[in-house]
Amino acid sequence: QHYKSITFIEIMKKKRKLKEIIDEEKSNKKSTVDTSVEAPKINVTEQETTAKMSRKNKRKKKGLSKGDLNRGALKPKKSAETAENPFETCDISILKNFGDIKTKDVQTLILHYLGCTKHCPEWCLVTNRGAGHNVCVVMLEALYPFVYKTMSLNMPNFTTLFPNGPIEIQNPGSELYVTPAGSAILEKELKRRANDSSSKNGRDEPALPPVQDYILLPEYMLAHEYPSEDTLNKEPGWRRFTGNITVKAKEYPLYAIDCEMCKTAEGSEVTQIAIIDECFNCLYKTYIKPANPIIDYVTAYSGITAEILKDVTTTLADVVKHMNNILPTQAIFVGHSLENDLRALKMYHDKVVDTATIYSSGKGGSLKPGLRFLALKYLRAKIQDSASGHDPCEDAMTCMRLVKLKVKKGPKFGILASGNENSLSVYLTKQSKTGVFIDKPIVAQQHCRGLAHALPATSDEQGLDTLLRRLSSKSEFYWFHMYKLEPIYRQCTTIHDMINNPQLSDTLNYIDESVQKIYAALPADTLFVVYSGCSGYWKKPEFNGSDEAMKKLMANIVAQVRRGLLFMKVKN
Q1: Cβ burial 118-138 (10 Å sphere, 16+ → b, else e)
Q2: Which of 6, 136, 301, 311 is the most exposed place for a label (fewest CB within 10 A)?
Q3: What is the C-alpha to C-alpha distance for residues 453 and 440, in angstroms, rounded to an integer?
């Protein structure tokens, strides 16, 4: 607040004075300071005159061109004496006692460092910002504060690179909800004009793509963990959908499928299936007897009870055989997160339209929208509202209606802005900045816009190799997301259980060495940001919404998951 009340010249003088004091402390007071000499004071008249100087007079006084002034280069040219002045390097100082720092504030700092905005967060001080050029951000999935504090000895490079230690940050979300931490950095809302429109009057609209254009490509099926050809070869009991060539149907017929599952000793197994055609006729609906003993019927969601399955004799093999008899070979399967249904059916099919991918949640990252949310928003329909569990026919019909609506409205329909138009890549392009985004294919594809390069990586090893090769390019912004810790968190009941996992130590060592390699490859004056958080997966306890005790438990878990760590350093 004090800095805001004085002129730019006073700020620069104070920063230079502060830098001199810091240099003296670092050199163990090798150079002395004459404390008797006070800093020159600027009287009120001179201060008012300086504040009222026009941009033209400033350029004339400093000997700068108009372009230099627009780039914020309000400083004289370097002389031979000042060329080696350490003050000419950029640095960031973190101020203490500022309370919770939010991840969105880190984005503000990044954009300020890149010269995209004049605003800088109040909890830090950027020295000589004009010398900075690049920013490299590495997000570490599931490195929670408790894990780092307990296992910090396994990460010696972090201690060396960031001697001041991490800062705890608050990732986005609410009391009972976790928003993907990556969205706070990778999404930037753009200001739009009131009369802005996607199309102009008088122009013919392009033809809408046919339904077959919405079939998932093989690389995206792999990214969404759909069964593949390798699944057929490696796992026993799996079958390929062949269909019946004698069934008459059009070229690309749609069939919506929904399954209800229960928990058995071998995992999730299907207990009910429903198949709907394009005319919303229920072609097939039956209960299925699991091959393994049932541990949990999940009645609240599946609607299945022991009484219902008591006399059921239909097996999974019977269901797959019947599907191959009644459906044509060229059938396109429609469903919501259909990879779960196909895995429960132990079936592979390469023609799939998934409503969880052709629509977006608007919450960023890799978070998929719920079927109930899509039905309410786009169909004005309430589903899954029965106390007796979900109805597979209702869910399948909803998926079919959503796909038909998508084909009718076009590919942009149902894609909310946060996953597309509000991508940071769009903002950087408007600022004439280039970026490199290395993440899972499902995340990387959202940021392949403008001057950005989206490079999908299916593993941390592949992503690290890609980043090290790309750091020599002329891009200003780099993003790399490491998921190495996520499988360990999935195996644990709580965050505190992670420290007992035998794989944790080796995983932290790998992350530590990777961060050191990235830092070593960074160009000079690059702001290196490493932060941790959750991108969508976290342990959710099953509870009744009216149970206050369980709500408190949920709030406690969410509070832990939303906490992250922030490490920052400028490479000089």
Answers
A1: eebbebbebbbbeebbbbbbb
A2: 311
A3: 13
Q: Which two tokens stand for residue 567?
A: 């490490």
- CA proximity to 460, closest of 486, 492, 490: 486
Got the DSSP string for 386-411? -TT---HHHHHHHHHHHHHHHHHH-T
CA angle 284, 287, 293 (to 5 degrees): 150
Is residue 544 helix, strand or coil?
coil
Cross-strand partners of 261: 270
* pLDDT in the model for residue 37: 45
The pLDDT value recorded for residue 259 is 93
Q: What is the DSSP letter of 100?
A: P
Which of helix, strand or coil describes residue 192? coil
Question: Which of the 8 DSSP states describes residue 381?
Answer: -
| Spatial contact of 328 and 249, defined as CB atoms under 8 Å apart | yes
Output the CA torsion 412→414→415→421 (10° steps): 70
Contact 436, 453 (CB under 8 A): yes
For residues 181 and 175, give the distance between their C-alpha atoms in angstroms, rounded to a whole number: 15
Nearest to 64 by CA among 78, 80, 50, 76: 76
Q: Which pair of structure tokens corresponds to residue 283?
A: 């072609």
User: How many angstroms separate the CA atoms of 251 and 273, rounded?
Assistant: 25
Question: What are the mean pLDDT values of the chain's consecutive 10-residue runs (572 residues total)?
Answer: 52 73 67 45 47 50 46 41 46 71 89 86 77 84 90 91 88 76 77 44 64 87 85 87 88 93 88 93 93 88 88 92 93 94 92 90 67 88 80 93 92 67 78 87 72 84 92 88 89 83 92 95 92 73 57 80 90 84
For residue 552, what pLDDT is reported?
Answer: 78
Closest CA to 316 of 259, 393, 255: 259
Q: Measured between alpha carbons, how far is 93 from 570 in angstroms, rounded to an integer?
A: 10
**Dist. CA 212–CA 254, nearest whole Å:** 10
User: What is each CA distance from 261 to 350, 373, 437, 510, in whole angstroms?
Assistant: 22, 21, 37, 37
Residue among 320, 314, 328 at smallest CA distance from 247: 328
Segments in 224-310 forming alpha helices (H): 229-234, 299-302
CA distances from 338 to 221, 228, 254, 318 (A): 10, 13, 14, 20
Q: Where are the beta strands (DSSP E) in 399-443?
A: 435-439
Q: Which of 318, 264, 324, 247 is nearest to 287 (CA)?
A: 318
The reported pTM is 0.52
Phi and psi angles of residue 488, each rounded to the nearest 5 degrees, phi first: -65, -40
Which residue from 212, 237, 219 is spatially nearest to 228, judged by alpha carbons? 219
Q: Which two tokens stand for residue 345?
A: 């059916």
**Amino acid at the residue 68:** D
DSSP H helices in 492-541 = 504-521
- First-to-last CA distance in the chain? 29
3-state secondary structure at position 295: strand
What DSSP character marks residue 459? Answer: S
CB-count burial class (<10 Å; 0-12, 13-18, 19+) for 224: buried
